[in-house]
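Annex B. Sample input.
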Amino acid sequence: MTDIVPVRRALISLSDKSGLDELAAGLARHGVEIVSTGGTAAKLREFGNEVRDVSDLTGFPEMMDGRVKTLHPKVHGGLLAVRDNPEHVAAMDAHGIVPIDLVVVNLYPFLNTVTSGADRDTIIENIDIGGPSMVRSAAKNHAHVAIVTDPADYAALLEQLDANGGTTLEFRKSLAAKAFALTAAYDSTISQWFAFADQGERWPHSWTRASTLKMPLRYGENPHQQAALYLPVGPSARGVAQASQVQGKELSYNNLNDANAALELAAEFRDGPPTIVIVKHANPCGVATRDRLLDAWKEALACDAVSAFGGIVASNRPLDVATAEAITDIFTEVVVAPDADDEAKAIFAKKKNLRLLLTGDLPDPRRGGQTLAIIAGGILMQDRDNGVVTREQLKVVTRRQPTEQELDDCLFAWTVAKHVKSNAIVYAKDGVTAGIGAGQMNRRDSARIAAIRAREAAEANGWPEPRTVGSAVASDAFFPFADGLLAAAEAGATAVIQPGGSIRDDEVIAAADEAGLAMVFTGMRHFRH
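Annex B, continued. Sample output.
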């Protein structure tokens, strides 16, 4: 392979013409002949550049509304010819093909056309054919041709010409890698539109998803694992991945995973009163809603101050200075919120390692979409758990009817339980979690662990009794036996919310009646593994 390749001829065909004037001026400075098409050629002439039309190069006019203009042997021969292969050189001479040393192309704006709400015919016309073909030809022959697909690379290209009189092999290789990534993402977007929007397929035979690197991370789940954050190509909900990091150390995989868990739960209350969520290892350890954000923080922390140490805090409201001061009283890894006022930011700035992430909007907890998990030899794909149960959908199954307050507590506990690892048990009272049991192998142990946390919180805060007394308890799935429900009753719960559906429902209902509990069925479960 040749290292330095002079650029004598460039083919430029652009949808996004930003930076074109500086690029053209730089190429002209190096005496590069510019071949171009349609609108790009017209724009170059506006800038005062000499341009050779591609139709002059090929001997054929652009035709079929521009669908056919660069799909020609004199274009692709000039791109694909191996310059040090005598047979290729002889073919070029025999057919009047001239070499093209540089291609500058970006593609028809297919994605923007789709998201603009354009009709089907317009969308189809914005599927680029000639552009990706030239990109791939030039990228394949990167030993001899430079392919530039991103205006951000124009400056580096001109630096190469200024420094070397041409492009280096390493530069061309990096451009080729970027070019193939572009065409892969472009085709992925088109294939998804055809499958989902146009054909209405639920699970298409082939599903490729394009993403772009946002940043490498400090490490993965453990320091010996490398990690990075990628963003999906195309529309997506704003969340932790799009958040602005105002301050703090570099983020790790765990930081982002936990911050996402906290934000997703906080977003469940985005239309409700001020709410604080504290998460540790992807599980909430304290959640509270109050009239003031500071009070919500105090109540969430009181639920389990031990677990909150070194945790992740999320808010459904912009952070104020008083709440910021309270949060920084304990060691906190990450704080994520829609925004923070300047005084709050100044308080957080005193904690140099604390990461402050501001998201703007909160994600919609009812949004669609899918989640995926990598398993050995495959990928598991499923719909997001955006299920919701309203008060009207609850079915009372016990003799005792729940009070209005118990129903409020049931729904609050149920919302939190949706975000707790299974087996999940959540006690809640007056808009505050009283105890949370997560990730146990049986539901009874989750109920007991949550009660233990509540007793410890009462001792730590000097309360006369645990907040599980008079609470509602939520179970993310049905009670297969009465033991878990009885453990909740022993802790003082007076109301229960659970999916129902066990073959022993009658036994569990009878146990609830005997204990004087009110119990409602949701008909929906919220496993979270």
